Amino acid sequence: EQNGFKLGLKHFGTSVDGHPIQVNYANDQGEPAVSLSQARQLVTADHVQVVEGPLLSSSIAVVAPYVLGQGIPEDDLYLASPEQAQAYTKYGAGFTSGWDGFAPTTEGGRWAYDTMHWRHVTTVGLGISFGWQGVAGFASQFTKLGGKIDKQLWVPTTTVDMSSYVSAIPASTQAVFVVLSGSQAANFVNDYKSFGLKKKIPLMGITTLTDQAALPAENTPAALGIYTDAQYCDGNPSAVNQAFANSYHAAYGVYPSYYSEAGYTKAQILVAALKSLHGVVSSEKALSMAMRAVHITAPRGPVSFDHSTWSPVQDEYICKVESVHGTLRNVPILTFSAVPPWGTLTQAEWEPIFAKTAVGPPSY
Fold first, then answer.
1. Which DSSP state fits 91?
2. How does DSSP classify residue 294?
């Protein structure tokens, strides 16, 4: 994410009308308590005028209300809770430029039922709000159409060995839907192949199952052909994405993950807002309003903001892992245009599910 943000500043501008953009980076080690402590340092000691929010959903949930309560706008990676969305409205500042767990996964649930004709699916999810919401988005739409969730498996954040979860998948299930990221995703994908399930039961997941933060560690035979529902596919053939992905590869030697694209888009939004202010931040409120008003075409596609949640309205994709010139890439095979935060559900259907899965797992 930091690499994407730095590349974004290089492309869009490190200064605006003679006003340099000064950036402090902090590593919260994936710990919400550390995230909050660092946020206090950034606001009270470093006097930052905008915060590009933390990575984990559990960290965002504690940092956003504090930062916004101090009158500082925050651009978050993920919409993790109703309280976060309410804070955006309460303080009139801040937003999520990245995504929420329901927009891609509800589209995925509908695609699984209508296109793949699956009727019985097992889910595997990370045991925090990110996992709960990703599974809930898929399952809520899938079961609404008549599908059945055969079994739900929840993986603690500290788990490394995925073999017990792979072995717990019912042999009779038609497909497996997974919400894991990073090394956990890679270990799961590799174990899935090792246990002989790859040829028997199709594997699908959320963005992070095979994005470029995990894909290089996944064995080629294990990863090829996996489907994901995603807000970003690094193999998107659009001119904007190809320019970004190739530039990122030239700079860092790897193709961009969704985190990379999210950081790049954050920089694009920030610079666009600062240009509208001619580089002069007379107030953090003015900066927040300028950032919220931005409409851009990012590598992922067009991005704007829903005013009830201050999170993105953007394209969602079904991606498939393919070998492109000898390198594993996530290639879009289907596009859903201008999807709202609640995806294929109505806002009224989504709100109670979103609230429940912000604090605990769903049941289907």
1. H
2. -
